[in-house]
Write a structure and sequence with these properties.
alpha+beta, Nuclear Transport Factor 2, Chain: A, 6-stranded mixed sheet
């Protein structure tokens, strides 16, 4: 489900679709397709929903692989709120929606996810991802939470 129509070139749009397909695999337990899209440069970083932060592909790979082992979501969908790509850098800001069955009941989760991409040797690569649980914030009419 996409609510925003990001203006990106066809190459970047195709890469974002690759990321989406890879994240579907990741959230159903297979981290490999998503890890294959990451840069191996020393400045890659991950701020996952489990907390903390990882820098470097080894640390990022370790956390993404461990996280995938705990995931068994049946559906994953992205709602793109913003996206922009230049010649060398790009980003997406998305809401990700996941569902799975637990004890016969549907379990739903939504994440806020920001990803940053860099073109390396003519190919887009993920260089940063920050994802965490979406929480509802209610603001009263006077602007207080």
């Amino acid at each position: 489900m996409q609510t925003a129509r990001p203006t990106v070139n066809a190459d970047a749009a195709q890469f974002v679709e690759q990321c989406h397909a890879a994240l579907r695999h990741h959230t159903s337990g297979n981290p490999r397709p998503f890890l294959e899209l990451w840069s191996h440069a020393p400045d890659v970083s991950l701020m996952g929903g489990v907390g903390g932060h990882q820098v470097g592909i080894d640390a990022v790979s370790e956390l993404l692989t461990a996280a995938a082992k705990t995931l068994n979501y049946e559906t994953w969908d992205a709602e793109t709120l913003a996206a922009d790509f230049g010649d060398q850098l790009g980003f997406t800001v998305e809401l990700e929606h996941l569902t799975r069955q637990i004890d016969g009941k549907t379990d739903e989760m939504s994440l806020r996810a920001t990803s940053v991409y860099r073109r390396e040797d003519g190919v887009w690569r993920v260089i940063h991802r920050h994802g965490d649980g979406l929480m509802t914030v209610e603001i009263d009419p006077e602007g207080r939470r």
